[in-house]
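If it is no trouble, can you show me the amino acids of a protein and the tokens describing how it folds?
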Amino acid sequence: MATIAGPAVELLRQQKKALRLAMKRTLRNFPLESRLEEDKAIQKHVLSADWFAQSRSLCAYLSCAALREVDTNQIVASILQHDASEMAKELYVPRIVDREANMVMLNVSTTEDLVTNSMGIVEPDFTDSGGHPRKSVLEASHPVDVLLVPGLVFDRSGRRCGRGGGYYDVFLSKYLELVKDKNWKRPLLVALAYSVQVVADPVPIAETDVPVDALVLASGVLPVSDYAIKLMSTEQT
């Protein structure tokens, strides 16, 4: 078996590498004006969606402009700056732990909880202003409703290719296993993507790669799993 698995794994690695390089070139050539227009439309779709409005606890990535990720600033601000008439939402955002694909999702309640690291990436401190450890979503007493994830390449079946670090696949596997063990309702896995990031051919994936339930594009919300079709409103592209 080893003689078969070895070449297969290497082939998959090379396929993903080529796909990432091609998409990075595509994103570099994607006009800034178009990107900003799509950022605005994508965030509007999320903020106006019933599945977002009804969520009470979410994980969301903090977008990095240098990586040309779909902007999440308005979404994050909306969660953190709710007024007294709105039901408060609990927010968890990512913090890289090490270079071994370990990442945690930590609870924040204000933009002041976020700092910019030496690489220009916004993330939460491990401790709050009082020096107390921030709560990890893996330690929470209840599940999150929605998980907004980034990615580099997607197809219309929900397959996702990240940037190669494996952080989200490792975290999602851990979290989904926790949900199963606790017998919790599974969260909706939603990816935000520019139009150029969705490819026609199937994205090559390994058994450990976690697909998403839905894509949010500038053109609308695209549920791709049966789970998403049942849970989400009929916001189709």
